[in-house]
Amino acid sequence: MKAVVYKGTKNVAVEEVPDPTIQSPTDAIVRITTTNICGSDLHMYEGRTSVEEGKVLGHENMGVVEEVGSGVDRLQVGDRVVLPFNIACGTCRNCTQGWTSFCLRSNPTEGMDGAAYGYANMGPYDGGQAEFLRVPWADFNALHLPPGTEHENDFTMLSDIFPTGWHGVELSGMQPGDRVAVFGAGPVGLMAAHSAMLRGASQVFVVDKEPDRLALAEKFGATGIDFSTGDPVEQLMDATHGVGVDRGVEAVGYQAHDPSGEEHPELVLDNLVQVVRATGGIGVVGVYVPQDPGANSELAKEGRIPFQYGQFFTKGQSMGTGQAPVKRYNRQLRDLIITGRANPGLIVSHELTLDEAVDGYERFDNREDGWTKVLLRPGT
Ligand code: NAD
Ligand code: ZN
Ligand code: ZN
Questions:
Q1: The Enoyl reductase (ER) domain covers which part of the protein (predicted)?
Q2: H or E element, residue 203
């Protein structure tokens, strides 16, 4: 089959690789109809991870069940499904508590809990930017979708970024009526803004400097704050008459930069501590890694981010972090899509064939104007 394969820094190729096979009775094989390029894929693409050459990429996958193992009894061949990016066993201590992103059994890598398709350090699993994908513990992991092709661009967001944005809001402790500031108007930040609106925020601000992304935030009912035109903390304080916001969501990650483009991994965390009111909450879904060889400070290279912890403590704020447990939210989010209340597919900017993936990676990585969310359609 054809697949997107990691070849080295800023180098992916579409190549012939062996078809996946059933390796355990609880596996299924899914024929991929849509698979997305994610901001998280860029960490690997930019050579900031230890991902091995030859890995098939792609953790945002949906499709149709092609084959099931002898131990699969809920899923059936022909079912349309979306796959959470987390690969989870469903029965360990963390999975049974709803923390599928910290599954204790799916990742054999020393010191790592939780696994994903096609990702560095997240277990030996190939990704779904390919014609077919092996899905472990398929009865547990796959979420059924209505048959047909309706809502394809919305449902594909259930594999990662819609539940991840929702999780950022959940971690912030948001209550109806709260004011929320989301940092980052990439796909994850936009989904956090959409989620906060759906959950009854009184006002949502989204901070970024990319005009096309800020315009999308406004489409979801949020107020855009352009950090290239002035200090975002001052802008948010002015907009809230000096009170600050109740909740903040971090959807940028360790590659946070200032308006000139220089990276400061602590910048957004500092901004959030300043702008969230005392006793408010901060949800961090932007990724911070134990080691970032590409960082511009020695501390950040070791994964030590020297943010304003003193002020965080003094203000009695709380902070939640980590990979999103997609399964915990995605049935409800699917139903919000089916009833027309949620429209996450609004952020899709490009729908490409698998063969066009190389170009898609390059342009998405360059943050070319209008390249917000890129979908690949292996069957086309
Ligand atoms: P992205 O790179 O497309 O978006 C990040 C955005 O942040 C960009 O638009 C950039 O302009 C903006 N930004 C940079 N510096 C900023 C600053 N100082 N202030 C405000 N905005 C700033 O990425 P994405 O796909 O939206 O993902 C965002 C983060 O979420 C990444 O770190 C990704 O790895 C992570 N992620 C986490 C999970 C999870 O489960 N926790 C899942 C998916 C993605
Ligand atoms: Zn993703
Ligand atoms: Zn588990």
A1: 8-376
A2: strand 203-208
The CA-based angle 136-122-281, given to 5 degrees, is 110
Ligand 1 pocket list (CB less than 6 A): 38-40, 160-161, 164, 183-189, 207-210, 213, 227, 251-253, 256-257, 267-268, 285-287, 323-324
Give dist(CA 103, CA 368) in Å, integer: 36
Rounded distance between C-alpha atoms, residue 240 and residue 274, angstroms: 13
Virtual torsion, Cα 328, 332, 338, 343, nearest 10 deg: -80
Q: What is the pTM of this model?
A: 0.97
Range 315-351 burial, b when 16+ CB lie within 10 A, else e = bebebeebbbbbbbbbeebbebbeeeebbbbbbbbbb
- What domain range includes position 346? 2-160+325-377
The pLDDT, as a whole number, for residue 291 is: 79
The ligand placed nearest to the CA atom of residue 107 is 3
Q: Quick one: 111 and 248 in the same domain?
A: no
Strand pairing report for 86-87 and 318-321: unpaired
Query: Which residue is listed with tokens 């799916």?
Result: 106
Nearest by Cα to 187 from 164, 209, 219, 203: 164
**Per-residue pLDDT tens digits for 28-57:** 999 999 999 999 999 999 998 889 999 999
Among 46, 139, 121, which residue's Cα sits nearest to residue 367? Answer: 46
Residues 124, 272 share a domain: no
Condensed to tens digits (0 to 9), the pLDDT of residues 311-337 reads 999 999 999 999 999 999 999 999 999
ipTM reported for the complex surpasses 0.85: yes
Do residue 68 and residue 141 come from a single domain?
Answer: yes
Atom 35 of ligand 1, nearest CA residue: 286
Nearest CA to ligand 1 atom 3: 186
User: What atom in ligand 1 is closest to the CA of residue 284?
Assistant: 41
- How many other CB atoms are there within 10 angstroms of residue 183's CB atom? 30
Mean pLDDT for all residues in the chain: 96
Total domains, the chain:
2
Specify whether the CB–CB gap between 172 and 183 falls below 8 A: no
User: Cβ(264)–Cβ(256) under 8 Å?
Assistant: yes
Tell me which of 122, 252, 329 to substitute to probe ligand 1's pocket, judged by most ligand atoms within 8 Å of the beta carbon.
Answer: 252
CATH number at residue 205: 3.40.50.720
